[in-house]
Amino acid sequence: MNSRRRSSKIALAAVSVGFMIVVLDAAALSVAIPDIKRAFGGSLASVQWVSNAYVVTFAGFMLSAGRVADRWGAKRTLLAGVAAFTITSVLCAVSPNISVLIVFRFLQGTAGAVLVTSAFSLIAHVFPGSDERAHALAMLNLCGSIGLTSGPLLAGVLVDTLSWRWVFLLNIVTGAFVALGLRLVSNPDPQRRLSVDIAGQILSVLSLGGLATALIEGRALGWTAPLTITGALVFIVAGIAFIAVERRRIDPMLPLSLFRTRSFTAGSVAVGVWRGSLYGLLFFLAFYFQHSHGFSSTLTGVAFIPITVTPLVSNYFSGSGIARWGSRFVAISGFAISAVGAGILFIASVTSGDYWLIGIALGLIGFGGGWAMPAVGHAALFNVPQQFSGIAAGVFNACGQTGALIGVALLGSLASGNAQLDLGTGATAVGALLVLTAVLLRRGLTVRT
Fold first, then answer.
1. Per-residue b/e over 329-362, b at no fewer than 16 CB within 10 Å?
2. How far apart are CA 436 and CA 215, in angstroms?
3. Distance CA 279, CA 238 (A)
4. Measured torsion, CA atoms of residues 75, 78, 79, 85, in degrees rounded to the nearest 10
5. DSSP letters for 179-212
6. For the whole model, what pTM was predicted?
7. pLDDT digit string (tens) for 362-411?
8. Whole-angstrom distance, CA of residue 103 vs CA of residue 110
9. Rg (CA), the chain
10. Which DSSP category does 73 fall into?
11. DSSP letter (8 states) at residue 260
12. CA triple 205-210-215, angle to 5 deg
């Protein structure tokens, strides 16, 4: 028992740090994006692709990554993901121009998908019980919050003192730590009968790529531009074909039956809304603070503290909250708190735009998300059969990344307009989505999941 408990703690530590790498990288990049734009030149759309190139492959390959984790074992898959993520981070750091950087970000997104999905799968295998899995997921999200907290501040210091390239080089040390820790963890039994859905994989990436193209280029070139229309058509056609392929397969990459479970469907929508709101705001506010308020990269990282530190506090208590009140209450109350923060952000946009009011708004948004997300993840994955835990985790996180893609594309495009007006537009959209999601969770989650 002591040996099992020790192995479980090591697994949780290694997995949590691995998850933190991915979150830290995404949060840090939001501060570095304006400096990357200055270093390489180019349009706002081009730097949006630096962010969304990663998200397209992250979300698209996450479904297959879940299948790979179930087939070859979560530990083995996680080690491969950590190694690939570290290598691609180095390649991003040495990119000579923005086009090469975008290519390497596509590759890094694939590695990130493997890392995150196998991390969640390993947690499901190591912690099969409901209560212990809830606390493990809370710890996983806590470490993600640490990455979210430290990422912008570290990036700001690195950009101002060294270069944006060091934002990617940060991943080397953490990647080595995870690899060493996982050596002491046993590999769950693989499910070798599962096959990888190549057709579904290609169609999912094409569909997400088309969506990103339509959203990003639509604002830059116009919604009737040929490239925008082409992207929209690729998204629709590939999406329909993907669903048709998955319905015909005996062992689909995306088992559509998962969405017959209300809690899984509601949770998947909720994680998409939250990540879209978070990363969309981070992308937009990086430009807003540096252009409208004249903040340096370091000061921009400091300005993000309210939305990145408060989840640390709420995440810490979320596991206990789930055990006491159930996932439904914790999730709904978290989204309600974040919606109040979005309302205050709107008030800031129509008054003086004073940072202290913005800081209060960001603090509430972050606190609500940190409180809600462990409950959302627990409720969504609670009734999924253990042998499909990797697939379900992949679908769940793919929904979150799809939300991030949409959020960065839509809120990021506001960075080129009137700052105060666009801040209000973004706050209104985020607030409305948070309220609607709280209503969905009230209907979709069981009372005591």
1. bbbbbbbbbbbbbbbbbbebbeeebeeebbbbbb
2. 22
3. 26
4. 180
5. HHHHTTSPPPPP-TT----HHHHHHHHHHHHHHH
6. 0.76
7. 999 989 988 888 888 877 777 676 666 667 777 887 788 788 878 877 77
8. 11
9. 20
10. -
11. G
12. 130
Torsion of CA 212, 25, 115, 393, to 10 degrees: -60
Task: Give the Å distances, CA to CA, from 34 to 258, 283, 315.
Answer: 40, 9, 30
Distances (CA, A) of 130 to 12, 39, 286, 379: 16, 49, 39, 10
Residues 373, 375, 376, 382, Cα dihedral to 10° = 140
Q: Which residue has the tokens 């040929």?
A: 226
In the numeric block, the tokens 């740090």 are attached to: 17
The amino acid present at 60, given as its one-letter code, is G
Contacts of 170 (CB under 8 A, 6+ apart): 24, 25, 28, 89, 154, 158
pLDDT grade for 1, boundaries at 50, 70 and 90: very low
Q: Alpha-carbon dihedral of residues 23, 100, 102, 145, nearest 10 degrees?
A: 10
Q: Is the pLDDT of residue 16 over 60?
A: yes
Per the listing, tokens 């390649």 go with: 91
Lowest mean pLDDT among 11-20, 105-114, 191-200: 191-200
The CA distance from 261 to 380, in Å, is 9
For residue 153, the Cα-to-chain-centroid distance in whole angstroms is 19
- Residue 443: burial class (beta carbons within 10 Å; 0-12, 13-18, 19+): exposed
- Percent of residues, the chain, with pLDDT higher than 70: 85
Longest alpha-carbon distance in the chain: 63
**Is residue 129 scored above 70 in pLDDT?**
no
Could you tell me which residue, 319 or 104, shows the higher pLDDT?
A: 104
Q: Residue range 304-333: average pLDDT?
A: 82
Token pair for 59: 């979300």
CB 36 within 8 A of CB 47: yes
